[in-house]
Amino acid sequence: MRRTVGRGVLGVLRYKLVGEEPPSEPVSVFVAYPHTSWLDTPLMLGIAWASDLKPGFLAKKSIFRAPFGGLLRALGGIAVDRANPGTLVADLTERARSGRPLALVIAPEGTQGGQGNWKSGFYRIAQDADVPLVLGYVDKPTRTCGLGPSFRPSGDVRADMDRVRAFYADKHGARLMPSAVPSLREEDDEPPA
Fold first, then answer.
1. From residue 130, how far is each of 65, 91, 106, 141, 154 by CA, in Å?
2. What's the average model confidence in pLDDT over 33-56?
3. Gap between the Cα atoms of 30 and 23, Å rounded
């Protein structure tokens, strides 16, 4: 049923699902990039459902109030208190370690069309929980979306991010606008290879 709904969402939004098969592991961190529009959320949910993944996604706590809070949680929403994010990565890592099926959808550039470094929580969660990163994307010029490669973080942040940058180099979001080049502050802390 979930697959049919996912394909229906993508069809209504006029996007074609292409790309690789999801990883066989029940738990993964699903990277959602580029993040340029409110449409990214339904598109990424459609991709996850059509790929038979059980998505969980982060959203600001304020939108979980009635009347939509219950629906958002049923769709996989996880409320984030932006004013007190202190234990978010640890809490999400623990959730990922539980082994219950979950594709934790994270838009690491943060706010739509962010221009700075990506937030590194997606990488730390995948590494600490020993689960794969799945590169999800939307590409408006081709009206395609889907899953790219998946891999476990190696701990070599720069090499892993080089893989991420290479994959996303030709991807453009649902709204054509500049997106942050995938980079993490942690790459600046590593000596060049």
1. 33, 15, 16, 34, 10
2. 88
3. 11
